[in-house]
Design goal:
Helix content is 25%, strand content 31%. The chain folds into two domains: 106 residues, D-amino Acid Aminotransferase, Chain A, domain 1 (2-Layer Sandwich), CATH 3.30.470; 154 residues, D-amino Acid Aminotransferase, Chain A, domain 2. The strands form two sheets. Strands 6, 7, 8, 9, 10, 11, 12, 13 and 14 form a nine-stranded mixed beta sheet that branches.
Length: 271
């Protein structure tokens, strides 16, 4: 069996005293590795550093992470890489020593097989009943993802690609595994990640390239009704890129070309 993970550059077991295991004390990022190279790497590394600093973990050196990727991904086959940065190992309790050393994990898994129809005609979204709570760590992709896990249990049908998450005020925040955008004319709106939610890498890249297609992106607050009134709805993550949404509840949208155009631009960013 080929190696599927590394800890600090080595193939070994995780300690039960690692704070990632005990408390979810750490951050993570997921990305595509193709031809042994991580896609959109500089943007992912930037987020890793920002997220580490947000919870006061010393960020890993970029050369260490790239060395891990080179060691684990030996073929040109497209796969998924996941980097976890843990605060490190400590005894029981929330307090930790100031000299604690972070641990870095790299996990390799198969690339998901997305139906071709998802890219051609779009996907359906479920509206979750679970409401997101306010967080002082909004924007950070930390390891505490229990709310997403609870929400994902609300449906089992394969007809839904993801689920929309609202806050307790009824505002659209994100989807369980992706960020969300709505287009009204030439303006694209996305939820403002100020009190809850994750700032995904593809979300950032989507905003970065939008002007090349003549769109202006605004980060605002809006509810589900506003989303359903949009001319077009899109979702983004680092594995599938950009997908058009074709149905939410009883609201349907016809096939449009924005998702395809955005994916082309994102592909160009990787060259």
């Amino acid at each position: 069996m080929s190696k599927q993970f590394l800890i600090n550059g080595k193939f070994k077991n995780i300690s039960p005293f690692d704070r990632a295991f005990q408390y979810g004390d750490g951050i993570f990022r997921t990305f595509v590795v193709e031809n042994k190279k991580p896609r959109h790497w500089k943007y992912h590394y930037k987020k890793i550093v920002e997220d580490c600093l947000a919870i006061k973990i010393k960020p890993p050196k970029e050369k260490e992470l790239l060395s891990d990727i080179h060691s684990l991904f030996k073929t040109n086959k497209k796969a998924v890489g996941k980097i976890i940065i843990s605060r490190g190992i400590s005894e029981r309790g929330y307090k930790f020593n100031k000299d604690i050393l972070h641990n870095r994990f790299l996990i390799k898994t198969k690339m998901p097989s997305y139906p071709k129809a998802s890219f051609k005609s779009g996907v359906n979204l479920f509206v979750c009943k679970h409401k997101l709570n306010l967080s002082i760590l909004s924007g950070v992709k930390h390891l505490n993802r229990l709310e997403n896990i609870v929400a994902r249990q609300e449906w089992s049908s394969d007809q839904y690609a993801d689920g929309i998450l609202l806050d307790h005020d009824g505002h659209v925040i994100e989807c369980i595994s992706s960020n969300i955008f709505m287009r009204v004319g030439k303006i694209i709106y996305t939820p403002k990640i100020s009190h809850v939610g994750i700032k995904g890498v593809t979300r950032e890249l989507f905003i970065l390239v939008s002007d090349q297609l003549g769109f202006k992106v605004k980060e605002v607050t809006f509810n589900l009704n506003k989303l359903l009134e949009a001319d077009e709805v899109l979702i983004t993550n680092s594995l599938f890129g950009v997908l058009q949404v074709k149905k939410i509840k009883n609201r349907s949208w016809q096939q449009q070309e924005s998702a395809s155009l955005f994916n082309q631009l994102l592909e160009n960013l990787n060259t």
